[in-house]
Amino acid sequence: xxxxxxxxxxxxxxxxxxxxxxxxxxxxxxxxxxxxxxxxxxxxxxxxxxxxxxxxxxxxxxxxxxxxxxxxxxxxxxxxxxxxxxxxxxxxxxxxxxxxxxxxxxxxxxxxxxxxxxxxxxxxxxxxxxxxxxxxxxxxxxxxxxxxxxxxxxxxxxxxxxxxxxxxxxxxxxxxxxxxxxxxxxxxxxxxxxxxxxxxxxxxxxxxxxxxxxxxxxxxxxxxxxxxxxxxxxxxxxxxxxxxxxxxxxxxx
Length: 253
Prior knowledge:
The protein is of the alpha+beta class. The chain is built from five helices and 14 strands.
């Protein structure tokens, strides 16, 4: 590794591929698929890990160092929030692609090692978002971003000037059901809520017990569960706030 950034990128990518190729044979088809995807992603400049949540606003997960580069994509998609963290504790796919470049740059400060894999987990709204026009709009947003970055040719509208806020993933609050019952949501995903706002009620049909669950932080209610009958310990809502309220493992699965 030296001062030639492009030579360093080529060497690091080659070494990453060799390490993956030298691993023992995968123990399952799922592990083989994980390894194949990571093998392809190691050679990529941009990695988009596309998902959808249960009932959610469009949102994305990324390293805080990369948020400036992702703002155009978030604006094009009209995302509700970006959740930023360098290590969520879950070995997520996007962090597995992006974080090694940060660690190498810190381990070899004398070498020119740029962040050569810009990766994000992109949650394209809800599982029930199957309208063709919405899917087409999301595709146009992603293609417009890729064209803007110089990866494809074509003409797309410029990114909107307004963009969602990037929040620390450590500021995300998970709200859980306190007991069994039917869940009645009082707010919709994508809304801004204030601390103390009622988000949902849990009604036990056997005992008539009713409990109202309120937000413990102000922020974007970016996802709610799809189930309407729940049990204690099951998350029902996620609120992305500006203030850090959690440490350690941040992902819920």
